[in-house]
Amino acid sequence: MNIVVCVKYVPDATGDRRFKPDNTVDRAAVDGLLSELDEYAVEQALQIKEKQGDDTEVTVLTVGPERAVEAIRKSLQMGADRGVHVLDDAIAGSDALATSLVLAQALAKVRSAGGWDLVLCGMGSTDGAMGVIPAMLSERLDVPGATFGSSIEVDGDTVRIRRDGDTATVTAEAVLPLVASVTDMTGEARYPSFKGIMAAKKKTVETWSLADIGVEPSQVGLSSSWTAVESTEARPPRTAGEVVSDEGGSGAKALVDFLTSKKFI
Amino acid sequence: MSEVLVLVDHVGGSVRKTTHEMLTIARRIGEPSAVFIGQLSDDAAGALRQYGAAKIYVVDPNALGPYLVAPKAEVLAQLVGSVTPAAVLVSSSAEGKEVAARVAVRTDSGIITDAVDVQPEGGTPGGAPVTTQSVFAGSYTVQATVTRGTPIIAVKPNAATPERAEGAGTVENVPVSISSSAKGARMTGVEPKKASGRPELTEAAIVVAGGRGTGGNFEPVEALADSLGAAVGASRAAVDSGWYPHSFQIGQTGKVVSPQLYVATGISGAIQHRAGMQTSKTIVAVNKDEEAPIFELADFGVVGDLHTVLPAATEEIEKRKG
């Protein structure tokens, strides 16, 4: 079977993330990396491949600026087989709906070239964090969506997921082809091995422009998106308040005094 | 005034507070219409009318079948087509966001999720919605608008103080026809979770959370939470260790909470955790390690062992409450 994992290159959350004057994310100010939440999707794809056997191919697809290829590289080092990078200046500033259009068109191209049975995504990105792309892809590609799996299992042409919601645990199944997303509960992602890092150097990464996937520049990008960010404002950083040491019960009393003074008790 | 569709958030037919908040927000933009997917009880209808629902569209859940969210989105998208509302509001939960995403594609409309506030443009009643979001781990506040189609907005709990306003709440049953493509993902089992009896984590005014420092013993955390009427949360370290269920995880990959009071106990305060609680109004920390980064953002901190500080604090609170 063929699996495509959609991944995102995001600014490192431990860096000083900020916006540019046009209210788009400044993707140059902070080093980027493969979104942690997408590592789980890559991991699950590799585990499915290991169970299915060697004729299963894992393709990693990303949309993003030049350096976004690093997210593909990391996935290839983990064990994915090939990469596709949709790179076009006209995409900059696209919102979720526009990004999903680009991804869906790229997936349509992959489909016509050798196809895919399963599109796998993380539960959301660590920057935008909307978590809506998998559902949008399900709609745009007109295939079922099985999202937020805390476990995923492929059995013949059936995919089963388990979803741990707040009020219930749901199990669901769908028949391939489909779009699925997995959460961080699916289990830790592997680190690239030395062998994996060496092997990744020989793997191919194709770069596609909007023209390659049949998207007009006027359909995407900052000015054509369905939403507009009107303003961005840094919140003043929190400042440290009083810190006391607990000595013989003094800490608990001081704590309760503080809560009382703030009228929480 | 145009209708504003509010997809009712309910558990087993009982309307949640988030719905009252969304109906309150809807009144700023237009005339609120509730969309209720389920068996509408008199209590539920009453609750919706109390918060201003002029219409209640009822969708028979049996007609949607045992599928994941696609049929819900299909019905809502059909309603958007027939009603042409000024906006659609859904709750910013995993399911709500997925419904919103699908409706956005189907109706070619812009979508905004995780709104912590929604106001009419220029403060004028009936104006187009302008949303506020808290992004990058709460370090930025962003205002956004939808520029194409019907604004589809996923609203976070506590985005508004619910205000009562009597609405006619005229019930209209929605005819349902579900396409075969929405029936692709079938639910094969639903196991309801036992209610903890505590407030819901993302809605709670007070949250007490435990981390690695609990060593796996959450009793002192739960006892303190109960003395404050609080919800209990856990750090990723505690959840990964199997000490507390994932649905209580606070942080980048779990819930993002913004309560009046957040009490972090035995939590060091890594960026991933801060992403889930940094916008809390007041933060209190208890940690053995005086170097723990959590103290950098705490309004009040106690350097000490949570296993002695928490039980003593709980006892003191009970005493003061009388």
Automatic annotation (TrEMBL), chain B:
Binds 1 FAD per dimer. FAD binds at residues 212, 235-236, 249-253, 266-273, 287. InterPro entries: DHS-like_NAD/FAD-binding_dom, ETF_a/b_N, ETF_a/FixB, ETF_asu_C, ETF_asu_C_CS, Rossmann-like_a/b/a_fold. Signal peptide: none annotated. It comes from uncultured Nocardioidaceae bacterium. This is Electron transfer flavoprotein, alpha subunit. Its cofactor is FAD. Heterodimer of an alpha and a beta subunit. The electron transfer flavoprotein serves as a specific electron acceptor for other dehydrogenases. It transfers the electrons to the main respiratory chain via ETF-ubiquinone oxidoreductase (ETF dehydrogenase). Keywords: Electron transport, FAD, Flavoprotein, Transport. GO terms for biological process: fatty acid beta-oxidation using acyl-CoA dehydrogenase. Belongs to the ETF alpha-subunit/FixB family. Residues 4-192 form the Electron transfer flavoprotein alpha/beta-subunit N-terminal domain. Pfam families: ETF (PF01012), ETF_alpha (PF00766). One of its GO terms (molecular function) is flavin adenine dinucleotide binding.
